[in-house]
Amino acid sequence: MKDLIVETLRVFVTVAEQSHFSRAAELLNLSQPGVSMHIRNLENEFGAQLLNRSPKHVKLTEEGEILYRQAKQILALYEDAKQEIRLLHEIVTGSIHIGASFTIGEYILPRPLAEFAAAYPEVELQVMIGNTEEVTRGVRLSQLDLGLVEGEVPDQSDLQVTPYMKDEMIVVAAPEHPLSSLRRAEPSDLQDRVWVLRESGSGTRAFSDRFLQERSLSMRHSYVFNSSQGVKEAVAAGLGIALLSRWVVRKELAAGELLEIETNGAPLQRNFSLIRNKQASPTLAVDMFLQKLLQKGN
């Protein structure tokens, strides 16, 4: 007897959505008496009338509304389980070209990438790490199957953008920096300081520029590096202060090589996003990798 309970619930949901026995029978490729039998069996099982019948249409009773909501969830979970079990017996192959901005590519992506590679060793993985602008361009040109970027993606007309996770940005300085003696820095304390910045086009640089502009902060001088690692090393060497992701500096903070300069106001946060070209044809390998990433992000 093939999935009798699931089949009965599917018949019930279809009747409820079509408000008609004969239309449901046509959609399910069943006879109308067969549909009626499924509904009677359900009503006998629950000891309640689930549908109010009339010659023109049927309508859910209060009990039927409850079962309809639960049946939708049961059917969705059933399909998810079938998909996961099927994938256990399939060999996922192919290749995935991934682009990631520096913070994500260097500090977040390696772990889910390693877990995915262990689960699906037949998939060839290629990773390009660049700034947000470069990754977005690669996805638009279909050179990359998907991208993970920091901050806002201004023009989304040709892209599918999915929120991935939140990132906290903090001001950091060397332990010897004059600001290190402050418990909390006021905007005036950050005025006319030497800043170490990422290059234009990076999500970190865009966030830093907005941070400075919103607080009307001027810089005495600035130094620009094209990687967060370079910015971090420059700050540790005493070149200036910087605004970086907590992901980037967590080890240095723990070791006392850098100090967080707390600022007034709400925590400084930005979004990490997954981006795909809307015209891209999905593959099983890419879909499985996206599923892995979203599990980690959530």
Q: Which terms summarize this structure?
A:
single chain; 298 residues; alpha/beta; Arc Repressor Mutant, subunit A; D-Maltodextrin-Binding Protein, domain 2; 7-stranded mixed beta sheet; two-stranded antiparallel ribbon; 11 strands; 45% helix; WH-like_DNA-bd_sf; transcription regulation; LysR family transcriptional regulator; LysR_HTH_N
What report would you give on this structure?
The model has no long low-confidence stretch (mean pLDDT 90). The strands form 3 sheets. Strands 3, 4, 5, 6, 9, 10 and 11 form a 7-stranded mixed sheet that branches. The chain is 45% helix and 24% strand. α8 (203-214) links the parallel β7 and β8 (219-225). It has 2 domains: 4-88, Winged helix-like DNA-binding domain superfamily/Winged helix DNA-binding domain (Arc Repressor Mutant, subunit A); 97-298, D-Maltodextrin-Binding Protein, domain 2 (3-Layer(aba) Sandwich). With 298 residues, it is of the alpha/beta class. The protein has helices at 4-18, 21-28, 32-46, 62-88, 102-107, 110-119, 132-140, 203-214, 228-236, 246-255, 284-297; strands spanning 51-53, 58-60, 94-101, 123-130, 146-150, 159-173, 193-198, 219-225, 242-245, 259-261, 268-277.
